[in-house]
Design a protein that fits this description.
Largest sheet: 3 strands, antiparallel
Order of helices and strands: HEEEH
Number of strands: 3
Structural class: alpha+beta
Low-confidence stretches: none
């Protein structure tokens, strides 16, 4: 049975999460959410949050550029609040 597109994408996202965690980052995968961001990666040293959208290898560069431009709207300075419920 061939591997589904979902499975390939999820496997790639897990590899990215592992790579980010190996750098010492706090990393979360937004599994199956259909949100514009697949992975949130936080660098505790530089206090930088990376919004990562994972796409297939054969996606056209112009489509990747469009997604990047859309996500750049979220760039800026944020106040971080911690909530435990």
């Amino acid at each position: 049975m061939p591997i589904s597109k979902y499975r390939k994408g999820a496997d790639k996202e897990r590899r990215i999460v592992n790579r980010e965690r190996n750098k010492g980052f706090l990393c979360f995968r937004s599994a199956g959410s259909h949100s514009p961001v697949d992975i949130f990666s936080l660098d505790p040293v530089s206090k930088t949050i990376f919004l990562i959208q994972s796409k297939g290898a054969f996606m056209a560069q112009r489509d990747k550029d469009k997604i990047k431009k859309e996500l750049e709207e979220y760039e800026g300075t944020y106040i971080v609040c911690v909530v435990v419920e």
